[in-house]
């Protein structure tokens, strides 16, 4: 992809956050954006660095993670194509308090804080759209905390595999294939599980005839049956 020919205003217009902006607004916003390629494993930002932008994953995968004092990593969120991150931190006027790192070769769009604030001053409704986006992310994180507290590890893995089932034929009981976007270890951390436990659950589901595992591709034979699965006591 030739970055010099990348149509920033057009790309911004398809993101939910900017969908209602007119052409003139999109042009102003695009002038405060930076588009860059990052290799797998590159850091987007680190804890303690000043937050002067929020970011959009155009292509690739980015993980947000924290490190324990002992150096153990906990994945907080996985950010795929078309999704934004760090908006809330930008408005808090504080340094980043999590780390962000690419999991694949990534095309990243960074939107300058100053440009966003200027646009909010021109059009207060833009602030409402940003608040709505931040609220959706908060709702998702609260849902995750509830799942970790109330659901077993098995239920978390099944929930992850079926997270998009309503958008596929699997909602009608037809088989579907889920491709894990990142490593199993990363997904396990996202679900607050050990990699060993995550693999053990996949083996259990495969032994029960519910899924077929081929590296990162997982074929779900009958999503409705998987949803109802209860292990034998």
Can you give a write-up of this model?
- With 233 residues, the chain is α+β, with helices and mostly antiparallel strands.
- The chain folds into two domains: 3-150, Sandwich (Jelly Rolls), CATH 2.60.120.10; 153-227, Arc Repressor Mutant, subunit A (Orthogonal Bundle).
- It is 40% helix and 23% strand.
- The protein has nine helices and eleven strands.
- The protein has helices at 8-14, 23-31, 87-92, 113-122, 124-150, 153-161, 184-190, 195-207, 223-227, and strands at residues 33-38, 43-45, 53-59, 62-67, 73-79, 84-85, 99-102, 106-112, 176-179, 211-214, 217-220.
- The strands form three sheets. Strands 1-8-3-6 form a four-stranded antiparallel β-sheet. The protein has a four-stranded antiparallel β-sheet with strand order 2-7-4-5.
- Strand 10 (211-214) and strand 11 form a beta hairpin.
- Helix 1 (8-14) crosses helix 2, helix 4 (113-122) crosses helix 5 (124-150) and helix 7 packs across helix 8 (195-207).
- The radius of gyration is 20 Å and the shape is elongated.
Order of helices and strands: HHEEEEEEHEEHHHEHHEEH
Let me know the average pLDDT: 86
Low-confidence runs (pLDDT<50, min 5 residues)? none
Neighbour order of strands in the largest sheet: 1-8-3-6
Radius of gyration computed on alpha carbons = 20 Å
CATH topology term of the largest domain = Jelly Rolls
Principal-axes shape call:
elongated
Number of helices: 9
Distance between the termini: 53 Å
Proportion of helical residues: 25-40%
The proportion of residues in beta strands is 15-25%
How many strands in all? 11
Largest sheet: 4 strands, antiparallel
Which class best fits the helix and strand makeup?
A: alpha+beta
Estimate nothing, just give the exact number of structural domains: 2
